[in-house]
Every structure is written in C-alpha cells, then in structure tokens.
Specification:
The chain has two helices and seven strands, in the order αβαββββββ. It has 137 residues and is mostly beta strands.
Length: 137
C-alpha cells in the first residue's frame, strides 16, 4: 500500500507541475473565408423587365466562367427575370461569357463577354451586362 501511495504522490507531483501543451496553430479556415463574390446584373435592351425575357423566349441566364489560363471553372444559371446572380469564386483571374437560354437550354442570344477580372478573396465584384435587342436570334 505504501508503494501505491508513493506512486500516486509522484504522479500528482509530475502531473500537477503546471506543465501543459498549447498550440498556436489556427483552426482550419472554411472555404468561404477565402472566396470572393462575383455579382452579375443584367438588363435586356437596357431595362429590367420580365416581359423582355418572355418576348425573347429567354428563361435562363447561363454564365460560363473560365480562368485567364483557359480552365473552365463552371457554368452557373439563374432565372432570366431575376436580372442578377451571385457566385463564389476562389482568388484568381477570370473571364466569363453570358447567354440567355430558352427552357430547353438553347441559346437565345449571342454571348456577352465579361473581360478579365480578378477575385482577391473576401471581396465582392459587381459587373453589369446588357443583352441588346440585336443579340437575340
């Protein structure tokens, strides 16, 4: 019993010495902490009017995003009559093309190009575009 008491006393002495380990590494960041936001607002022939979508048989906006090195990042869609969409992108340099499509995914307009832009991360970039009447097929 005396040996157990001595071991217990030794464990308390060593364990109770105030020695502890702390780490200063931050917790892993979530993806959203480093992404930026691209906001694309569109008009048809200079106006935001759902009747213009109907008249042009346009149901969707499809936004195709590429890095400036040519890698396809993705296609993003939103309803034509929303006249705006928001997507999150990692920090990089990009360009994009937007078209209006019918319900079956057939292009109703020529592509509108969004020239080179940069997402730095934790930022927001707003880009207005217009589909003139002449862009419709």
């Amino acid at each position: 019993m005396r040996a157990i008491s001595s071991l217990f006393a030794l464990a308390l002495t060593l364990g109770g010495s105030g020695c502890f380990v702390a780490t200063t590494e931050p917790a892993p960041a979530s993806r959203s902490e480093y992404t930026g936001t691209l906001l694309v607002d569109w008009t048809i022939d200079g106006v935001r009017d759902a009747d213009e979508c109907d008249q042009g048989d346009a149901v969707w906006l499809r936004l195709s995003v590429y890095t400036t090195s040519g890698a396809h990042v993705g296609d993003f869609s939103d309803a034509c009559d929303q006249f705006g969409t928001t997507i999150e992108l990692d920090p990089d340099d990009y360009y994009a093309e937007a078209v209006l499509e019918d319900a079956d995914g057939h292009e109703r307009t020529t592509a509108v190009t969004i020239d080179d832009f940069s997402i730095l991360g934790r930022d927001s970039l707003s880009v207005p575009i217009d589909f003139p009447a002449s862009s419709f097929y």
